[in-house]
């Protein structure tokens, strides 16, 4: 007989809803900082994105963020099932 996992599925889904407002506020804060004259944002990056006030020319940061989010969700779904 398989145990009831409905509570575990609810808990994992509720964590996603808890993280959404945090992500939005961090994104909004960083994007507003890029619009202000913050000196450390112009020279605080590394590798190919040394100036954090301009857009990523290779679109690598959004792709890496999406990939890590996808991997996290997949690992979570495997552990729940």
Give the number of DSSP strands: 0
Beta-strand portion reads under 5%
Radius of gyration: 18 Å
**What integer is the average pLDDT?**
78
Task: Please tell me what the overall shape is.
Answer: elongated
Q: Treating each run of at least 4 consecutive H or I residues as one helix, how many helices?
A: 3
Q: Unreliable runs, pLDDT <50, ≥5 residues? A: none
Q: Any idea how many domains?
A: 1
Please give the share of residues in helix. 55-70%
Q: Main beta sheet: strand number and arrangement? A: none
- What sequence of helices (H) and strands (E) makes up the elements? HHH
N-to-C CA distance: 15 Å
- Give the class from helix and strand content and strand pairing: mainly alpha
Walk me through the structure:
The protein is mainly alpha-helical and 81 residues long. The chain has one domain (6-80). It is 69% helix and 0% strand. It has 3 helices and no strands. It has helices at residues 6-35, 39-43, 60-80. It is elongated, with a radius of gyration of 18 Å. It starts with 5 loop residues before the first helix and ends with a helix. The mean pLDDT is 78.
In short:
The protein contains three helices and no strands.
How are the SSEs ordered, and which strands pair?
Elements: H1 6-35, H2 39-43, H3 60-80
Keywords:
single chain, 81 residues, mainly alpha
